[in-house]
């Protein structure tokens, strides 16, 4: 099965389509991060919505890499305003926050622990039908949250997913003017997440020809355009922006794998896309050494990029990381702290639901070894 719930609106200036999408709604809540206010996009969005007669309330300071506490902090504001339309204007962090707020606004009887995928050996409670419409307007080119059914939240130091079609946005507006204001580092980190989404989605056990098409196009686009996008090239920013959503459509269907399981459990160390980029080559080597399927699939991607083998693809990923200045893990966290937490991370990653989609099912010790190899840069 291949599915996509979200209506996608794309193009320069497409933010203006908010006027059409918000028509008929009375109370519109716009959630955004600081940069969207700073660069004038929040004001522009408010104007389009007010222009069609809705009452607008905006929250402009949502943080990056959200936690359950952030949801608890902002939920009362959502409940007080009683919106009939939610608009998330920002990166994956803002969109994920808005999705979780939608869950607990529409279904206040639920709590995070019972609906989140904490452990793949126990099933979370299903999320009931939710009513409030959600429009996602990504300002980074990365997470794919504008089409995915996932909201990723930190609880303590690690990340867990809420996954349900109920939180997949109803509409995504992809206006390339927004990601053009990203600092180079945000463009790099979020763009590398797109590459990881593409490569992991292409190699899961549930990939299908339709998710493959989205994954391959996203991978090729990032490979060709991300270095230019990081430098601030306008066309490159637009291309990577659309690729991010394509990769989102790929993993919405084909899911993700061990690399994301590992980065979610190491979330205390740094930004999501950066951690994924660091772990990816190690996970790929692990998978291709143990699975003919993984080796074949990596080789297919390599050929799409003009190379030939799975090993070539690992090299390509390492070179891209090097070219974009991705640091070693040892530059982000000291040896003692990392080693003291590696067993706990390995256990939690082993229990992460995404491991079930990875082409190889790893043992907990193997995940620990992968974390350590990534740390030592071997
Ligand atoms: N739901 C899913 O399916 C899914 C998939 C993968 C990852 N994720 C999650 O998504 C999050 C990462 O999202 P992300 O990579 O999109 O980055 P992000 O965390 O949303 O944004 C990173 C930073 O970039 C700044 N920023 C964003 N857009 C900008 C713009 N246009 N101009 C200037 N600054 C801008 C923001 O700063 P300001 O605060 O100053 O605005 C923000 O602090 C992680 O929490 C990850 O776990 C979710
Ligand atoms: Fe990701």
CATH class term of the largest domain: Mainly Alpha
User: What ligands does this structure carry?
Assistant: NADP nicotinamide-adenine-dinucleotide phosphate, fe (ii) ion
Give the total of domains: 2
Shape: globular
Strand content: 5-15%
> The biggest beta sheet, please?
6 strands, parallel
Counting DSSP E segments of at least 2 residues, the number of strands comes to: 8
Per the CATH scheme, the topology name of the largest domain is Dehydroquinate synthase-like, alpha domain
Radius of gyration: 20 Å
Main sheet strand line-up: 1-8-5-4-2-3
> What is the helix tally?
15
Supply the CATH superfamily name of the largest domain.
Dehydroquinate synthase-like - alpha domain
Named CATH architecture of the largest domain? Up-down Bundle
What's the helix-strand series? EHEHHEHEHHEEEEHHHHHHHHH
Helix content: 40-55%
Question: Structural class of the helix and strand makeup?
Answer: alpha/beta
Give an overview in words.
- It is built from 15 helices and eight strands.
- It starts with 6 loop residues before the first strand and ends with a helix.
- It has a six-stranded parallel beta sheet with strand order 1-8-5-4-2-3, with helices on both faces. A two-stranded antiparallel sheet has the order 6-7.
- The radius of gyration is 20 Å and the shape is globular.
- By secondary structure, it is α/β, with parallel strands linked by helices.
- Helix 7 packs antiparallel against helix 8, helix 7 runs parallel beside helix 11 and helix 14 packs antiparallel against helix 15.
- It folds into two domains: 168 residues, Rossmann fold (3-Layer(aba) Sandwich), CATH 3.40.50; 193 residues, Dehydroquinate synthase-like - alpha domain (Dehydroquinate synthase-like, alpha domain).
- A hairpin with a 2-residue loop joins strand 6 and strand 7.
- Bound molecules: NADP nicotinamide-adenine-dinucleotide phosphate and fe (ii) ion.
- The site of NADP nicotinamide-adenine-dinucleotide phosphate has 32 residues, from helix 2, helix 5, strand 6, helix 7 and helix 11.
- InterPro entries: ADH_Fe/GldA, ADH_Fe_C, Alcohol_dehydrogenase_Fe, NADPH_BDH.
- It comes from Thermococcus barossii.
- Keywords: Oxidoreductase.
